[in-house]
Each structure stands twice: as structure tokens, then as C-alpha cells.
Amino acid sequence: GESVGLHLPTLSVQEGDNSIINCAYSNSASDYFIWYKQESGKGPQFIIDIRSNMDKRQGQRVTVLLNKTVKHLSLQIAATQPGDSAVYFCADSGGSNYKLTFGKGTLLTVNP
Amino acid sequence: KAGVTQTPRYLIKTRGQQVTLSCSPISGHRSVSWYQQTPGQGLQFLFEYFSETQRNKGNFPGRFSGRQFSNSRSEMNVSTLELGDSALYLCASSDGTGNVNYGYTFGSGTRLTVV
Description:
Chain A is built from no helices and 10 strands.
């Protein structure tokens, strides 16, 4: 049946630690993936993206890894800071039908 | 460069009423997508418009509709509101051609409460 509320996976880390957030996708036709960060009261904010012809992409303090064999995506945040506390979503293009399919999200809490 | 602007930020409506939400995309972007975010279902795709044409639609009832104007601004309308329509409605703007990347940029959303 329909869930009353999403039970977000949670990740709690200490400031300065590295964080790894995982995501599984289901559509093998997906060729574009995005990680978003959403803070309370705000819309999702773009962090980093990756196309299916790559398996790794690095940004500033963030790295996305893509494993197409098992349809798995991860976001690594280096030297996590309190300002990184938010809900993180992965999204995939589902084969370029002009829409994104979002994962459930992971709540990251960074303890000072 | 201005971001994605959604108005109003908050809205309270009564069951049975209808509501119109507005989204102005980033200048130069021709694609506008709409998403509904609820605690129960997460982020769900409503529809996407490009150059005034709907290119894709999610699995929502016909009470949910949208349109896009020649200046790329978009509106979505929900008629005969139900309690379950209470949600954060998000608009995303992108180039729409996919030549570089999809680069969806979201607005801050409109928080709709149906009472």
C-alpha cells in the first residue's frame, strides 16, 4: 500500500569526515544522473552530474561514482562541513524523456 | 543572472477550489518542468514544457494541467483541490536541448496547503 511517509535513510558524520551517500536507480536506459542537495524550505540545488559514458566525475569536494552494471550511484563529500547538512537526492533521466526520476533522498547530518 | 522564480511562495486553499502557480525560468531557458514534493511520495514529475509544447507528462490526474507562454514562463493549474494536493510544487528550468547537459535548476517552490 501507499506509505504514510518516506523514511529517509540517514547519515550522521563528524565535521571533517568524508561522507558517502548511495543511490540505486532502476531504469537501465538512463543516461544522465544528477545529485541535488535540498535544505529546509528551499528547492533542490544542483551539486554535480554525470553521463553514462563516465564512471567517475569530480567537483569541488564532491565526487560522483557511477556503476552501470549494478545501477548504483554514489556521492562522496570530502571534509564534510556543517553547511553540508541537508537532504541529498539522486535523479536520473530515465532515457531522456525530458523528466527526472528522483530517489527517496538521504538526510545528512554533520555534527560539529 | 536571476534564478528560477516561483510565485506565490505560500498558498492556502479550500477543498474544491482551484489554484494557479507561476514559474519564470532562467533567462534563455526554454524548458520548464514541474514536480510535486510530498513526505509520502517524494519528488514526482508532473509535466515538462518546451517552446510552449508539452513534451512529457507524469502520472497525475487531469485536474493537474499546465501551459507555457511565448516568453517561457509557465503556469500550472490544479482544479477541484483535494487535501492530498497539499505539497511543495517545484519548478525546474533548463536549456531543454540536452546538447550540453540537462542542467535542471530548481526554484524555491510554492508551498500549497489545502484545508
